Amino acid sequence: MQKDKLRIMVLGAHPDDCELTTGGTCVKYRKLGHVVKYVYTTNGNAGHHKLSKEEIAKVRALEVKAACEVAGFEYEIMDNNDGYLEADITNRDKLIRIIRKFQPDIIFAPRLNDYHTDHRRTSILLQDASYLLMVPHVCPDVPPLRYCPVIMYVADDFNKPVPFEPTIVVDIDDVFETKMKILDCHKSQFYEWLPWVDNYENEVPADKSKRLQWLSEKRGAYYSLLADKYRHKLIERYGEEKGSKVKYIEAFEISEYGAQPTREQLSGYFPF
Ligand SMILES: [Zn+2]
């Protein structure tokens, strides 16, 4: 089912996950007038070392609001505690209702073998929800979907039991700056929590005006590594000339639990 305006949903466990994995691609969708909604399955209230759980949940809600405003994404934060997400029937049904109401063409989500308990459970919740989206007797208060959305997994580095293998790669060079501005909204994460938990606090520039540049270099390195890792896919998609020059990418793998588009349909879902 393809329309003029695609409806794109991204599932992430924590406020900043969707931005990290799909920020560039979703800016590209928005530029073409498609609708994007970020859904976070937890409130991120374990993501700080100094602020209380209540305080950091509030801060992160504001950071999400700011980040989604940069590119015009809709968003929703589910009321689950960070680090304690349950892949249970209650959350599955909540997710079914959210998906049915939004009616996405594509849903982006983490794979099942991610390192973080909340990421994995987000993936399980979507897997459990996927077929039931179309079953009227499940969550009968919201009309079922009459189609199955395409599900795309976001890139990761986990190799067991199977490595991530991209179905499609997206050149994000033209929107990289915007992606970094989106990430920059998550100040509590990129300048405080993550440097603390991964022991690189001394790298964060004291001068706040230098932080965005630092973030772009720090985070850009990963998207650049992805580009080199999947260079052959870039050349296949964009041709030798352009594909060999792309610096930053995002990459996605089709899931067996969603609709299985043809090659042609898939390029319609990634119209850039
Ligand atoms: Zn996360």
Explain this structure:
With 272 residues, the chain is α/β, with parallel strands linked by helices. The protein is built from ten helices and seven strands. A seven-stranded mixed sheet has the order 3-2-1-4-5-7-6, sandwiched between helices. Helix 1 crosses helix 5. The two termini are 18 Å apart. It binds zinc ion (ZN). Zinc ion binds next to loops.
* Morphology call: globular
Instruction: Tell me the strand order in the biggest sheet.
Output: 3-2-1-4-5-7-6
Bound ligands, named by name, code or SMILES = zinc ion
Beta-strand portion reads 5-15%
CATH architecture of the domain at 7-172 and 251-269: 3-Layer(aba) Sandwich
CATH superfamily of the domain at 7-172 and 251-269: LmbE-like
Q: What oligomeric state best describes the polypeptide chains here?
A: single chain
Sketch the topology as an H/E string, one letter per element: EHEHEHEHEEHHHHHEH
Pick out the low-confidence regions. Answer: none
Number of helices: 10
State the CATH class of the domain at 7-172 and 251-269: Alpha Beta
Distance between the termini: 18 Å
Mean pLDDT: 97
Sheet with the most strands?
Answer: 7 strands, mixed
Number of strands: 7
